[in-house]
Design goal:
By secondary structure, the protein is an alpha/beta fold. It has 3 domains: 108 residues, Rossmann fold; 165 residues, TPP-binding domain (Rossmann fold, 3-Layer(aba) Sandwich), CATH 3.40.50; 207 residues, Thiamin diphosphate (ThDP)-binding fold, Pyr/PP domains (Rossmann fold). 34% of the residues lie in helices and 16% in strands. It contains 17 helices and 17 strands. The strands form 4 sheets. A 6-stranded parallel sheet has the order 7-6-5-8-9-10. Strands 12-11-13-14-17 form a 5-stranded parallel sheet. Strands 1-2-4-3 form a 4-stranded parallel sheet, sandwiched between helices. Strand 15 and strand 16 form a beta hairpin. It is globular, with a radius of gyration of 25 Å. The relative contact order is 0.10.
């Protein structure tokens, strides 16, 4: 939840956890904040100072544990230095590339009284005019330009300045993985999301560009198609890379024009930059290709996820917040839903399962007037469904949509691709008889292919799903549906809506 607060507000979310097991559980949030460049402060309990280095109860060296997943890790042993440590923690979390800071608090130190810490101020770099001026010449002379925007550090005003810039320069814009709300997806210059399951036409547009302007994202694995979309370290495109942290520039891709800047700072300068007279590539053509790609394609089974996303986009308010965790189900959300409002997409770029449920609860607590929907696969939902108790306690009417295929679909898909054999059902009362299969070559997104429950012509399939298991599965499924409907009616009466999408069957 703290990471989602930081992502939604741009201010550090704060989490306080117990030592040992509490810290290991919180490490998921810390890792998410680190890879997503989200400001966050994590306070962790610690054993008493005179018990240190004895392997006391739940004692862990947090500097070693969080060293690679936080911007700074420290332990406050002297209570008189609490204001100093807190001030430094908030400044580190928000300066340059944002990220998490971890502070360990020995239990015997917490009983002492200290002064309040001073309020932090955001520190950000801004580009020099000499760095902005060369941009006037890059798209001219018949060069084809493309822009990839995203990353953290944006504000609503910065996105408006950015939209004004791309309108004036007629630049086609792709948004980085899970930052699709950086530009209104109905904007005539929006070309789609540059991430997992990318539109092949969009990937070709990126590869064929003469000038590639990257504003905000790190250009990590998901945004670059596993580092295959662009050449390393020198791209064939003229690369302009703007990032909040100097350490990210040149880390993988060597830019022709690297610029260190906060997003609000450079967006305001770009909005005031007059476009060249001759613009070679208009953004409208890329948007038309995106609209065609976004149209739902039929998939096997009764549940048509593409149509569901389209209907959601047409029905719910434009400022609705949609959260999700990790899993193949999210690819339909990325492809078919239209994000219209700043900070309407809240999702982990590090692929943390279970993220969507607590993120939605945090979003609803921050913006009670906005519709908040959490998408989760059944495996993703099981990771954090206990957080619904928090939503009930604070009367937060979040909508939870569980896409249930009775399996860890992404894991099964990858294992099927490696081992290339049929899998027996796990030790469960519900046998699984259909694997996840990638149909990206034909549809461009993941789909589920239903395998006949027990074809008579296949002895192997019969071993996977015997007749007795099929009948048991039908009985369990019927009981599950009755229970789900009963739970949904009770939850709705309490002000909370709980939607479950039926599995393909």
């Amino acid at each position: 939840m703290a990471e989602a607060v930081g992502k939604l507000t741009g201010r550090p979310g704060v989490a306080i956890v117990t030592r040992g097991p509490g810290a290991t559980h919180a490490s998921i949030g810390a890792h998410t904040a680190f890879q997503d460049s989200t400001p966050m402060i994590l306070f962790i309990g610690q054993c008493a100072r005179d018990h240190m280095d004895r392997e006391a109860f739940q004692e862990i060296d947090y500097r070693r544990m969080f060293g690679q997943m936080a911007k700074w890790v420290a332990q406050i042993d002297d209570p008189r230095r609490v204001p100093e440590y807190l001030s430094h923690a908030f400044h580190v979390a928000t300066a340059g590339r944002p990220g998490p800071v971890v502070l360990a608090l020995p239990e015997d130190m917490l009983t002492e009284t200290v002064d309040a810490a001073p309020r932090y101020q955001r520190v950000a770099a801004a580009p020099a005019p000499a760095q902005i001026e060369p941009l006037r010449e890059l798209p001219a002379n018949g060069k084809k330009s493309f822009m990839i925007a995203g990353g953290s550090g944006w504000t609503e005003e910065a996105t408006r300045d950015f939209a004004r810039f791309v309108e004036q320069w007629q630049l086609p814009v792709g948004c980085a993985f899970r930052y699709q709300d950086t530009l209104d997806n109905e904007h005539p210059n929006y070309a789609g999301d540059v991430g997992l399951g990318i539109n092949p036409a969009l990937a070709a547009r990126v590869r064929d560009a003469d000038v590639l302007f990257v504003l905000g994202p790190r250009m990590g694995e998901s945004t670059t198609g596993g580092y295959t979309l662009l050449d390393i370290p020198k791209t064939k495109q003229t690369l302009i890379h703007v990032h909040q942290g100097a350490e990210e520039l040149g880390r993988v891709y060597s830019a022709d024009l690297p610029i260190v800047s906060g997003m609000p700072e450079i967006a305001s300068m770009l909005a005031a930059l007059a476009p060249p007279a001759n613009i070679a590539w208009a953004g409208e053509a890329a948007h038309a290709t995106y609209l065609e790609w976004r149209k739902p394609r039929p998939m096997l089974g009764d549940v048509q996820l593409g149509e569901i996303m389209r209907q959601l986009a047409e029905t719910i308010p434009a400022d609705s917040i949609l959260t999700n965790g990790a899993g193949n189900y999210a690819t339909w959300l990325h492809r078919h839903y239209s994000y219209r409002h700043f900070r309407s997409q809240v999702a982990p770029t590090n692929g943390a399962m279970g993220y969507g449920v607590p993120a939605a609860i945090a979003a609803k607590s921050l913006y009670p007037e906005r519709t908040v929907i959490a998408f989760a696969g059944d495996g993703c939902f099981m990771m954090s469904s206990h957080e619904i108790a928090t939503a009930m306690q604070y009367r937060l009417p979040v909508i939870f949509i569980v896409v249930n295929n009775a399996q860890y679909g992404t894991i099964r898909m990858h294992r099927s691709g490696i081992i290339r054999t049929a899998y027996t059902a796990p030790a469960s009362r519900i046998p699984i008889s259909w694997p996840m299969r990638a149909r990206s070559a034909r549809m461009g997104s993941w789909s589920r292919r239903r395998i006949s429950s027990c074809p008579r012509s296949s002895a192997r399939s019969a071993r996977v799903c015997p007749r007795s298991s099929r009948s048991e599965f039908r009985r369990i499924r019927a009981r599950w549906v009755r229970h789900s409907n009963k739970f949904a009616s009770k939850a709705s009466a309490r002000g909370q809506t709980f939607n479950i999408l039926a599995r393909n069957s």
